[in-house]
Structures are given as C-alpha cells and as structure tokens.
Amino acid sequence: MTSTQSKWLEAELKFDSRVVGKHEVVMTRGQGSVVWDESGRSYIDCVAGYGVANIGHCHPDVVKAIRDQAERLLVMPQSLPNDKRAEFLTELVGVTPAGLDRVFLCNSGTEAMEAAKKFAITATGRKRFVSMKRGFSGRSLGALAFTWEPKYREPFGEAVDNRNVDFVTYGNIEELRAVITDETAAVILEPVQGEGGVRPASPEFIQEARRLTQEKGALLILDEIQTGFCRTGKMFAAEHYGVVPDGMTLAKAMAGGVPIGAFVMTADVADRMPAGGHGGTFGGNPLAMAAGVAAIRAMKREGMAEQAREKGAYFMEKLRGIQSPKIREVRGLGLMIGVELKEKSAPYIHALEHEEGVLTLQATPLVVRFLPPVTISREQIDTVVAAFERVLNSVNPRAERQAELAAAQKEQTQTE
Question: With bands split at pLDDT 50, 70 and 90, how would you rate the model's confidence at 177?
Fold first, then answer.
C-alpha cells in the first residue's frame, strides 16, 4: 500500500461511522467492467456497486448527460415540473410492463420500498403484508419489517414492527396460499433473491402469487431493485414469468451509477394515495433524471438485455465446468449468478480480490455472487472463471483459520 493510499484509507476509517466493513484498498477510477485502485492495480469488477453499474462504469453517454445537465440545472422539486424529469418518465414508462404507467420518484431502493408500503396500504385499506424468508427489502425501519434476516432487525427491537408481516418460504406455494387473506395489503417478493443466495423463483410460484393476490384483492409488488434493467436477461425479471404486478420497486442500475429510486405502479394504486401522502426533497432531481434517460437509452440501443442473457449463459456454463468438490451448485438468471460452496465463501472472495484482482460478493455465508456489468467481455469472463478455479484449488480455509488462531494466541501471550 502506498503512502497516498494509506492516507486516504486512514481518513476514511477515522471519520466513517464504521457501520460498513472496509476493504484495505482505495478505489479511484472505473471504466466498463474494470476498476483501478490508488496504486494503479486493475480489478475485474463483479460487484458493480452491488448491481448498480449494469451498463459499465462511466458509460460515456451517462457522463455526457451528467456534465450537460450540471451546467443547466441541478435541483428542482417535483412540485415544479421539469423538462428532464418529463423526458425520464417517458423513457421509464416506455420500458415497464403495460399498465405500470405511474411513477413515484425517490433516491434509493429502500426509499422505493417505503413508498410501496404506503401506496399498498392506501390502495387496499389493509395493513398486513406477506414477505419472503431469506428476502431482503432494505434497512430503513419501515422496509426492514419485510427483511427476513434477523441480524438486520434484532438490534432495533420493537422499533421494527413486523407484527403485520407473514414470512413464507420462498417458492413454497402451499405456505403462500395459507397466508394470503382478505386482510393482506400486498405480497412483496424478489423474482430472484439476491442477498438470499441468488435464488430464482419458479414460474409456478410467481404465477400463483399473481393469481392469489388478484383473487383476494391484494397487490403483488415485485422487488426489481437488483433484478431490473437488463440484469437477468430481460429489461425486468417479471418478463421471464409472464406476469404483470401491481407495482415494482426500482433503483440501482436505473441511472448508470447516480443515486435514484422509483416505485412504478398502476393508475388505480397511484390514485388512492391522498395528495401529500408521500414525498421527498431530492426525488426526481434533474441530474438523476438526465443520467436515467441516458442509461435507459443505452440499454435499449446496445441490446443489453440480450447481452446479459447470452453472457450469463456462457458464464454459468464455464463455472459449471469447474471440477471442484467444493462447489455444491451454480445458479442464477442472466448475469446475476451465485456459486454455492460446501464451506464458507469468505476466504475465496478475499483471495479473488487480493491474489487475482477479481471483485465478487457474498450472498449468505456459503455463496459467491457474481454481478458484473453487462458490458463484461467473454475474455474477461474467462479470466474470472480461471481465477476462481485457481483459488478453489489453492485456498485452505481450515489452515488459514488455524494460522489466524495461532497468531492471535501468540499476540495475546506477548501482551501478557
């Protein structure tokens, strides 16, 4: 690590809240599917900002749109109509499933989920929800009620009110049938669970959720925050299942890297929210809108849904070709891929970064998650797969853990 790098890392560690665990590296630049650290080392990025950089880092169209808009107008509240906002809404509704033509604009996926919760209550007059085990819906107090993992909820106790939330096993149709009632406001689910281990839903499960919600007068809300905007090989994952929900939560890749969020819904759902029932200062700001217009147009023009479909199939084929007893399963949809191991994935993720220059994510303790930009090349995919195979063969988690324990014991002895 260089002295300059140490300075920046030291400053971030000193003043940051420490809520987020930090890697010992300072990233400074990105282009396409590659990022560089302060020392100039390159990494193939299969994190993509947790699924944000679908169209690649610093896509030239998005960079130009941001630059041009920054010279014209940065902020304008939604109470005052704006040309770029109108242009963005037109582009967005042009790619969403038919009937989802009303949009609440915000700044993140969690904000989109908060909006969805409120719109569902006012649309149905009900307060009970159905969410999924292993599902992830955000970490604000409202959205956290729908997030399954106890470690996210327990530190806040009763402040996270999920007494009106029924959790069902993802994919279990009988459980779903048992909990959707005349009191259910909405069923909320991810077409592919990301944090939950990269688990695509079966068509039967999604389709039955649609049928049951219509039968009971509840809403079906699909969380497309990570799956949306070409990630799974379609513009939205809902298209794989042949269903149109009552609403979708969107964020992440929608503006090519600029913070943005939206809840798209039917007119019937939108019209039942009282005027002033929800809002936000920065939602729909012209800068994010300009980036969003450029990003969506690039996705369409460059055929990124088709790219994700073809490259995802190639990536999974290559991963399944790895002969390793440590691999339990390779699964995914498009370029949303998870490799479940028979042991903890963290040592392999660490080795990929530090030894191979490949950035990946964890999804549950056993899963290595690959979320590369759609712009990743086949040659880069080959490089990532070869690197993954090398670390599977070279890393011995048990020996590493024993070494860590021995070092800790030695340090304690020296201290004493």
Answer: very high
